[in-house]
Automatic annotation (TrEMBL):
UniProt-listed Pfam families: GFA
Domain of life: Bacteria
Ranges that cross the membrane: none
Start and end residues of each CENP-V/GFA domain: 3-111
Entry similarity comment: Belongs to the Gfa family.
GO molecular function: carbon-sulfur lyase activity; metal ion binding
SUPFAM superfamilies listed in its UniProt record: Mss4-like
Swiss-Prot/TrEMBL keywords: Metal-binding, Zinc
PROSITE patterns, per database record: CENP_V_GFA (PS51891)
Protein's name according to its UniProt entry: Aldehyde-activating protein
């Protein structure tokens, strides 16, 4: 299935392919403040449609994840990084996807504060 998503103002738009059933809610200092529900997909399943020039990047701590945000509206639609096996991944904020019933998703909790 292909999902489409964007930031609030629409400058950053993307599509992602996969089966969306589970998301991760991380309690680290940035994810808890953003309220993100993260769907991790292989990088090749994610395609940025527009907004490369509008994207800002924020990295902290170990700097293994680049948190991407729209420099106009401030919304964080996705992040980029590497999984423990060394594969490039994209962490899509499911709250930025169009027409997704978030209440139907299984939410797994991740203790990012403990890292």
């Amino acid at each position: 299935m292909i999902f489409r998503g964007s930031c609030h103002c629409g400058q950053v738009a993307f599509e992602v392919e996969g089966e969306l059933a589970r998301v991760t809610e991380c309690n680290c200092s940035i994810c808890s403040r953003k309220g993100a529900l993260l769907w991790f997909v292989p990088r090749e399943k994610f395609r940025l449609i527009s907004g490369e020039q509008s994207l800002g990047t924020y990295a902290f701590g170990s700097r293994t994840v680049s948190h991407r945000f729209c420099s106009t509206c401030g919304i964080h639609p996705f992040g980029e990084g590497v999984d423990p096996s060394g594969n490039r991944i994209t962490a899509v904020n499911a709250r930025c996807l169009d027409d997704v019933d978030l209440s139907s998703l299984v939410v797994e909790h991740f203790d990012g504060r403990a890292l």
